[in-house]
Design goal:
eight-stranded parallel β-barrel
Length: about 220
């Protein structure tokens, strides 16, 4: 199957309210260009340096999403162009994004990452930290970021019930967070292995790589 036919097949299977982020980490510019030529415009990268290099050499109407763990010292490199930051997991990181966005005369949309998995290796706020942050008033001074929603990653497991429960937890948190931040719209959850479950549980944005581009290089 070609990248184009994979893309068409997946897009046809997604509900209209779900945004597809094509994950391009380790993929070549040629692969991304093929997806672009098939009409796709939203791509996700895990590493800032790789995303910046690809941004420089690909068409400028691409929306680049930073979906990996983000270090504060890397924000300045992507601040001129990034369309959405998925994995914001601290107030310090939010302040850095706000500072760099201001320098570039931009407002950068962000998602707050919530730790919903049982695995300790995943990053993110827990429930109490999230509610503390959004109810504290600390976000109001950050005029160059826009909190658009939440992001989470389920445990890597064959247990579909556990995955469902974790995604459901994120959806409940999203509904609770909306009482503080009424403009929240996005729930980024679901990857190639579990995106169908994520959509059932309320995802509005799925991050798919291998099901579009084939196995990682």
């Amino acid at each position: 199957m070609s990248i184009k036919s994979n893309l068409i097949k997946i897009k046809e299977s997604l509900p209209t309210h779900v945004t597809l982020v094509a994950v391009t980490k380790t993929k070549s510019v040629a692969d991304i260009q093929e997806a672009y030529d098939a009409g796709h415009r939203i791509f996700g990268e895990n590493k800032v340096q790789e995303m910046t290099e690809k941004w420089e050499s690909l068409p400028k109407d691409i929306e680049w999403h930073m979906i990996g763990h983000l270090q504060r010292n890397k924000v300045k490199y992507m601040a001129p162009f990034v369309s959405l930051v998925h994995g914001v997991d601290s107030l310090r990181l939010l302040k850095e994004i706000n500072k760099r966005a201001k320098q570039n005369d931009r407002v950068i949309p962000c998602l707050l990452q919530v730790h919903i998995a049982e695995e300790s290796s995943k990053f993110g706020f827990d429930e109490n930290e999230l509610i503390d942050l959004i109810s504290s008033g600390n976000l109001e001074s950050l005029e160059h970021i826009e909190i658009k929603g939440l992001m989470g990653m389920a445990t890597f497991t064959e247990d579909t019930q556990q995955i469902s429960n974790e995604f459901r937890t994120l959806k409940k948190l999203f509904d609770r967070a909306k009482t503080y931040l009424p403009n929240l719209k996005e729930i980024s959850m679901g990857m190639s292995g579990d995106y169908k479950i994520a959509i059932e549980e309320g995802s509005t944005m799925v991050r798919l790589g291998s099901s579009i581009f084939g196995a990682r290089n």
